[in-house]
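Why should sequence recovery work at all? Because a backbone constrains its sequence more than one might expect. Tight turns favour small or flexible residues, buried strands favour hydrophobic ones, and helices have their own preferences. The token representation captures these environments compactly. In the example below, the structure is given first.
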């Protein structure tokens, strides 16, 4: 088994010194940079001596970014090279904006270059099924990274027409694909007739049946990665052991906290994933609460690295919806729904008022009555839940993360 390429990359970035000592110095520098240059962090952050002081620092939340994102910026407007505007669904109704300098984006490209080399070789032909037309967008940065690696990138965008994507794969002799899990499931179920070397799932949780369908259909290896725009897109990627992500530990400092007490948890315990940027200049984030639920896997990775392993992230902290006499997450529902061979896509809506109803719109291939019966048999739900399953011709593919939509929920 090949050791994660992140290992040598991080060793070089840290000049082969002790990682914790390097992180400690970078943390001190970042706090100093943020507290002297951003309106938001000025007055909030005391000067610190290093890692030992991290636990005293206040958290940064998504709402802090929504409220007035430019207050977090540490450079002049002229030095901002890319602005990313995210969702407008926050409680304040304003979108999150993230600001990056050219150097910040270079850090992302560098990570993509090294991370992709886990399963991509020079000469490989890589289809990017993510938005990539805008300079500095995720697909664009990934294409730049792949060129550095000596691979040949093809920017396509999100999957629109599976048959058209399959045509590109055959015509361009594509052997590596990067895309959204459910988009790749639609492609695998409807366009099974080609082979790939490897696949990278991006932007959302990966239900086991999707991973299994993709690897079996195209005879490829499948890798997960973890990231969000706030992290500078990339956060970590799996090694050949494929049991969770190794992280960009020279650029990002991760913690797991108890979301209630806000105290740090030891490796192995589940809690909220929190990170601090160590090398970003435009808009550094100190102890940013991701809202993702996860844990570090204790012990060494079989690949031989001394880097930590973050277990595959399966859900959001608030992703547990009360239903019947229990709870359900979109990850659990996806695992049941996509285990049915005929299911291509599904949209799940729960009744948030009475907590006893679940409506599922499904796109299936083949015999519809048989598929509906198989779905009913696959669903194990809390007692007292009424389920309505409706077959639909097509569910439009989007870049949005999969969620259980709430029906009648009161937004405060
Ligand atoms: Zn590993």
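From this structural description, the recovered sequence reads:
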């Amino acid at each position: 088994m090949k050791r994660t390429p992140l290992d040598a990359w991080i060793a070089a970035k840290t000049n082969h010194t002790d990682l914790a000592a390097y992180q400690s110095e970078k943390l001190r520098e970042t706090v100093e940079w943020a507290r002297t240059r951003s309106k938001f962090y000025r007055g909030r952050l005391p000067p610190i001596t290093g890692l030992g002081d991290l636990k005293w620092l206040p958290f940064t939340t998504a709402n802090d970014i929504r409220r007035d994102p430019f207050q977090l910026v540490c450079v002049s407007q002229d030095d901002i090279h890319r602005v990313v505007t995210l969702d407008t669904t926050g409680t304040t109704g304003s979108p999150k904006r993230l600001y990056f300098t050219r150097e910040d984006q270079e850090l992302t490209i560098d990570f993509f270059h090294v991370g992709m080399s886990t399963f991509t070789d020079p000469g490989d032909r890589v289809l990017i099924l993510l938005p990539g037309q805008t300079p500095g967008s995720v697909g664009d940065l990934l294409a730049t990274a792949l060129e550095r690696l000596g691979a040949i990138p093809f920017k396509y965008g999100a999957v629109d027409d599976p048959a058209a994507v399959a045509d590109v794969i055959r015509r361009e002799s594509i052997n590596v694909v990067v895309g959204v899990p459910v988009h790749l499931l639609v492609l695998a179920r409807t366009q099974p007739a080609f082979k790939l070397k490897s696949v990278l799932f991006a932007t959302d949780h990966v239900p086991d049946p999707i991973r299994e369908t993709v690897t079996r259909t195209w005879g490829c290896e499948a890798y997960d990665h973890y990231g969000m725009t706030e992290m500078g897109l990339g956060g970590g990627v799996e090694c050949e052991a494929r049991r969770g992500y190794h992280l960009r530990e020279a650029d990002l400092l991760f913690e797991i906290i108890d979301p209630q007490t806000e105290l740090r948890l030891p490796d192995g315990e589940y809690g909220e994933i929190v990170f601090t940027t160590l090398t970003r200049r435009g808009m550094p984030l100190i102890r940013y609460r991701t809202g993702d639920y996860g844990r570090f896997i204790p012990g060494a990775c079989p690949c031989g690295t001394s880097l930590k392993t973050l277990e595959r992230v399966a859900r959001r902290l608030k992703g547990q919806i009360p239903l019947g006499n229990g709870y359900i997450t979109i990850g659990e529902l996806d695992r049941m729904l996509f285990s049915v061979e005929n299911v291509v896509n599904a949209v799940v809506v729960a009744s948030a008022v009475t907590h006893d109803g679940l409506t599922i719109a499904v796109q299936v291939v083949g015999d519809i009555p048989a598929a509906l019966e198989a779905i009913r048999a696959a669903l194990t739900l809390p007692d007292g839940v009424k389920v309505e399953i409706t077959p639909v011709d097509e569910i439009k593919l989007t870049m949005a993360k999969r969620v259980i939509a709430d029906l009648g929920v009161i937004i405060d």
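A few observations help interpret the result. The mean pLDDT is 94.
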